[in-house]
Design brief:
Strand content: 5-15%
CATH topology of one domain: Nucleotidyltransferase, domain 5
Number of strands: 5
Helix content: 25-40%
GO molecular function, one term: DNA binding
Distance between the termini: 65 Å
Number of helices: 10
CATH superfamily of one domain: Ribonuclease H-like superfamily/Ribonuclease H
Protein name: Transposase Tc1-like domain-containing protein
GO biological process, one term: DNA transposition
Radius of gyration: 35 Å
Structural class: alpha/beta
CATH class of one domain: Alpha Beta
Strand order of the largest sheet: 3-2-1-4-5
Oligomer: single chain
Largest sheet: 5 strands, mixed
């Protein structure tokens, strides 16, 4: 038997208004196109409670006790436990099993949401100390101080397509439609590596790296692109930021930057690992 639809508060108010005008229950039911029982119980509820709102329902009783709901403590002890594992652990001590969805619902009520874990580089203790030292040394830098930094790095871009997943919206039988496909080529289609920089809210040179970038190639980039961009965007004694890639820290490049630093052209920012 289908569940009967509950009368709205507006309909109940209309029943009360029409009743006060002297209409019978049968006439009200015919006028408002509802059942006779609906009219009767609506008027009875209004007489008993003085309101046309629904009574507060007790709801379905909880299948777990407050003591059992503390299994969220297990989730905090081991953040990687799944809802299925927590439900299995709880059901091992119960006569009546609870579902995995119930466990997940209790965890959400406690503010514990299931999420994909963020990825973060694994750091040794020495690297953590270096990062903390760097942060303390720069904690009082002003906006003007940061505007003196020329930020540099190399990046690789896929020429054809991408290794990331592509989401489309399709019907059941549209799997092989052209507009629902991601084209691919053999061997990935190749990639392009570029070196770029920016500073003081402006972008500097963008240089396409041909082949493998070695220390000699990076030394050339410093001479022809990095230092000219820093002087053009920021001015004399700008701060050069670069990571600890082996070609960046090679003797050839390190000695060259030390010479420029001694000449007052730039300052090399000490950059912590990772």
């Amino acid at each position: 038997m289908a569940r009967k639809r509950e009368l709205s508060s507006e309909t109940r108010q209309s029943i009360l208004v029409v009743r006060n005008e002297g209409y019978s229950m049968r006439e009200i039911a015919k006028k408002l196109k509802i059942s006779n029982n609906g009219v009767y119980y609506s008027l009875q509820r209004t007489a008993q409670t003085g309101s046309n709102q629904s009574r507060k329902r007790s709801g379905r009783p909880r299948c777990t006790t407050k003591q059992e709901d503390k299994y969220r403590v297990s989730s905090l002890r081991n953040r990687r436990l799944t809802g299925l594992q927590l439900a299995s652990s709880l059901n091992s001590t119960r006569k009546t099993p609870v579902s995995t969805s119930t466990v997940k619902r209790r965890l959400r009520d406690s503010g514990l949401q299931g999420r994909v874990a963020k990825k973060k580089p694994y750091l040794r203790l020495a690297n953590k100390r270096k990062r903390l030292k760097w942060a303390k040394e720069h904690r009082h830098w002003t906006e003007e101080d940061w505007k003196k930094v020329l930020w540099t790095d190399e990046s690789k871009f896929e020429v054809f397509g991408s290794q990331r997943r592509t989401f489309v919206r399709r019907r059941t039988n549209e799997k092989m439609l052209e507009e629902c496909l991601t084209p691919s080529v053999k061997h990935g289609g190749g990639n392009v590596m570029v070196w770029g920089c920016f500073g003081a809210g402006k972008v500097g040179d963008l240089y396409r790296v041909k082949g493998i970038l070695n220390k000699e190639g990076y030394h050339s980039i410093l001479q022809r692109h990095a230092i000219p961009s820093g002087q053009r965007l920021i001015g004399a004694n700008f701060v050069l930021q670069q990571d600890n890639d082996p070609k960046h820290t090679s003797k050839l490049c390190k000695n060259y930057l030390q010479q420029k630093q001694a000449a007052g052209i730039l300052l090399v920012m000490e950059w912590p690992a990772q």
